[in-house]
């Protein structure tokens, strides 16, 4: 199947989950992350605000002993800002929640870990997103390419093999509601 068809069918499957199932699976993903050694040693973590029933990581953000960063889509790039619960948010492009443009931006050298939202991931760590290429472009730039990345995905969308384009770079690990796996 091509990326477009796969994306459509997996998004449909994700949207068909009940809210109770979505919450339960999201909680399990948060617990699997919390128990991992890579998470334990990460102080500054880039994450995302759940959209279209993506795994909801908001429980993690209540841990204010860490610094959390969230993206704003500007042109075809992602700009990262510090954010903590109770800070203001805005609805940005695509209807996704974003930090305020006034929030401090993050210097890439500070970042220890990137939690990457995925429509699907495969057993080699390749990722399918919404098709905007935002994370592909981010992770191909010099200041980000060596950062540890963990794809966040529900188990039903963790599949054997995705179609791979020349610009796709594998993630270092994936986390689902049933497993946390580092590839390297
Ligand atoms: N929660 C969350 N925030 C995120 C991302 C994400 O995957 N999840 N992104 C990750 O990159 C960026 C937003 N990327 C997006 C890219 C495309 C569409 C979108 O709705 N696209 C249209 C048409 C796309 C096309 O041309 O094929 C659509 O799907 O209808 C949404 C978000 C930044 N913030
Ligand atoms: N490093 C890059 N530099 C410039 N353009 C890129 C780069 N990587 C990907 N793109 C462009 O981004 C587009 C989206 O690619 P793809 O369908 O693989 O997105 P995706 O990984 O599903 O989306 P996203 O990263 O937004 O979640 C492609 O048209 C591709 O040409």
Automatic annotation (TrEMBL):
<keyword id="KW-0436">Ligase</keyword>
<dbReference type="GO" id="GO:0005524">
    <property type="term" value="F:ATP binding"/>
</dbReference>
<dbReference type="InterPro" id="IPR037171">
    <property type="entry name" value="NagB/RpiA_transferase-like"/>
</dbReference>
<dbReference type="GO" id="GO:0009396">
    <property type="term" value="P:folic acid-containing compound biosynthetic process"/>
</dbReference>
<keyword id="KW-0547">Nucleotide-binding</keyword>
<feature type="binding site">
    <location>
        <position position="54"/>
    </location>
    <ligand>
        <name>substrate</name>
    </ligand>
</feature>
<dbReference type="InterPro" id="IPR002698">
    <property type="entry name" value="FTHF_cligase"/>
</dbReference>
<dbReference type="Pfam" id="PF01812">
    <property type="entry name" value="5-FTHF_cyc-lig"/>
</dbReference>
<dbReference type="InterPro" id="IPR024185">
    <property type="entry name" value="FTHF_cligase-like_sf"/>
</dbReference>
<protein>
    <recommendedName>
        <fullName>5-formyltetrahydrofolate cyclo-ligase</fullName>
        <ecNumber>6.3.3.2</ecNumber>
    </recommendedName>
</protein>
<keyword id="KW-0479">Metal-binding</keyword>
<keyword id="KW-0460">Magnesium</keyword>
<feature type="binding site">
    <location>
        <begin position="3"/>
        <end position="7"/>
    </location>
    <ligand>
        <name>ATP</name>
    </ligand>
</feature>
<dbReference type="GO" id="GO:0046872">
    <property type="term" value="F:metal ion binding"/>
</dbReference>
<comment type="similarity">
    <text>Belongs to the 5-formyltetrahydrofolate cyclo-ligase family.</text>
</comment>
<dbReference type="GO" id="GO:0035999">
    <property type="term" value="P:tetrahydrofolate interconversion"/>
</dbReference>
<dbReference type="GO" id="GO:0030272">
    <property type="term" value="F:5-formyltetrahydrofolate cyclo-ligase activity"/>
</dbReference>
<keyword id="KW-0067">ATP-binding</keyword>
<feature type="binding site">
    <location>
        <begin position="127"/>
        <end position="135"/>
    </location>
    <ligand>
        <name>ATP</name>
    </ligand>
</feature>
């Amino acid at each position: 199947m091509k990326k477009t068809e796969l994306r459509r069918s997996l998004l449909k499957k994700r949207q068909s989950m009940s809210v109770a199932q979505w919450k339960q699976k999201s909680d399990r993903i948060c617990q699997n992350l919390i128990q991992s050694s890579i998470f334990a040693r990460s102080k500054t973590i880039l994450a995302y605000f759940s959209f279209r029933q993506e795994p909801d990581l908001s429980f993690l953000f209540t841990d204010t002993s860490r610094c959390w960063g969230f993206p704003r889509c500007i042109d075809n790039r992602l700009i990262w800002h510090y954010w903590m619960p109770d800070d203001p948010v805005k609805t940005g492009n695509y209807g996704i929640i974003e930090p305020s443009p006034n929030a401090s931006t993050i210097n890439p050298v500070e970042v220890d870990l990137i939690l990457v939202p995925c429509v699907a991931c495969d057993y080699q760590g390749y990722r399918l997103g919404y098709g905007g290429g935002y994370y592909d472009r981010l992770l191909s730039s010099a200041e980000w390419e060596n950062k540890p990345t963990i794809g966040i995905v529900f188990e039903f969308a963790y599949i054997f093999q995705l179609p791979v384009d020349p610009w796709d770079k594998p993630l270092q690990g994936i986390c689902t509601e049933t497993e946390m796996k580092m590839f390297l």
